[in-house]
Amino acid sequence: MIFQNLRIVFMGTPEFAVASLDALLSAGCQIVAVVTSPDQPAGRGMKLSESAVKKYAVLHQLKILQPEKLKSIEFLEELKSLQADLQIVVAFRMLPEVVWNMPHMGTINLHGSLLPQYRGAAPINWAIINGESETGVTTFKLKHEIDTGNILLQERFPIHKNETAGEVHDKMKEIGARVLLKTVRELIDGTLNEKPQTESKTKSDLRNAPKIFTENCKIDFSKSAIEIHNLVRGLSPFPGAFSELGEKKLKILKSEIEDVHHEKAIGTIETDHKSYLKIACLNGFILITELQLEGKKRMKIEEFLRGFRNF
Q1: Residues 149-184: tens digit of each pLDDT
Q2: Backbone Cα Rg of the chain
Q3: What are the distances in angstroms from CA 90 to CA 18, 41, 48, 134, 228?
Q4: Low-confidence ranges of the chain (pLDDT < 70)
């Protein structure tokens, strides 16, 4: 196999990165080490939890590095000792130059958007929130400014009008793994052409994808039905678009649009207490089809209404 003599260090943490690591390993790539986040306390008992990438690496008996600090002398010395030809980054933290510039073939990153659009930590979420009808994946060479390096390969695919971030995520991780593998193959055989990120549009036309915070998740029912529906899709299943029900947070995880004229006050709730619950917004209603009340499990609307007769 053409991959066998290439020494690769893979860097990643969540489930999204596992598909890429699996594709590389299955193709015969020599993964000399996996760099992932330190174990984190999680759950009610605050037990240490391993990242998805670490669990995969343990299962496949790969060398694992979990540095607290990427500039620590111990980590840098161990990384250098691996003599990697190439580093690959998928859903990991920002690297200092001393790390990404270490291998002679450089460091390549897989990003979940069509760069230069949606640079940042949450490209899937923001593409859906903004109502995009397509997205894609990009492999690129790392350099100083985040998500700005030369593009290696890209692949587009549609976002369907009711798809959630979770559904796009699952589709994207497989497409991304395939594009990443193709990138490595073409890098080895010398057929890959690097292209600078062309910002033909003005900077004001470029949309960024910053980290999602709680304030991004609260639903404003004075907005249009399509804007609210896109917010719900873009934050489902996690962290979830929310409103309040009494003193509890109510996450709306799936919705539909009822595009009708009404004279109701914004935020008015209508329900038959059996099969539907809808909320008045700017130009229609948002029908809630799946939700999760704080402290409860995720439910279809019918199940929720059966349990909350006096809602």
Answers
A1: 999 999 999 999 999 999 999 999 999 999 999 999
A2: 22
A3: 9, 23, 23, 21, 30
A4: 1-2, 43-46, 199-204, 310-311
Domains and CATH numbers, the chain: 7-205 (3.40.50.170), 214-307 (3.10.25.10)
- pTM, full prediction: 0.94
**Counting Cβ atoms within 10 Å, is residue 51 exposed (0-12), middle (13-18) or buried (19+)?**
buried
The pLDDT, as a whole number, for residue 199 is 58
What does the alpha-carbon distance between residue 152 and residue 143 come to, in Å, rounded to a whole number?
13
Q: Which residue has the tokens 């859903």?
A: 91
Q: What are phi and psi of 75, to 5 degrees?
A: -65, -45
- DSSP secondary structure letters along the chain: -TTTT-EEEEEE-SHHHHHHHHHHHHTT-EEEEEE-PPPEEETTTTEEE--HHHHHHHHTT--EE--S-TT-HHHHHHHHHT--SEEEEES-PPPPHHHHT-STT-EEEEESSSTTTTBSS-HHHHHHHTT-SEEEEEEEE--SSTT-SPEEEEEEEE--TT--HHHHHHHHHHHHHHHHHHHHHHHHHT----B-----S-GGGPPB-PPP-HHHHB--TTS-HHHHHHHHHHTTTTT-EEEEETTEEEEEEEEEEE-----PPTT-EEE-SSS-EEEEETTEEEEEEEEEETTS-EEEHHHHHHH-TT-
Rounded to whole angstroms, how far apart are CA atoms 230 and 236? 10
Distances (CA, A) of 98 to 34, 72, 105, 142, 267: 17, 11, 14, 12, 52
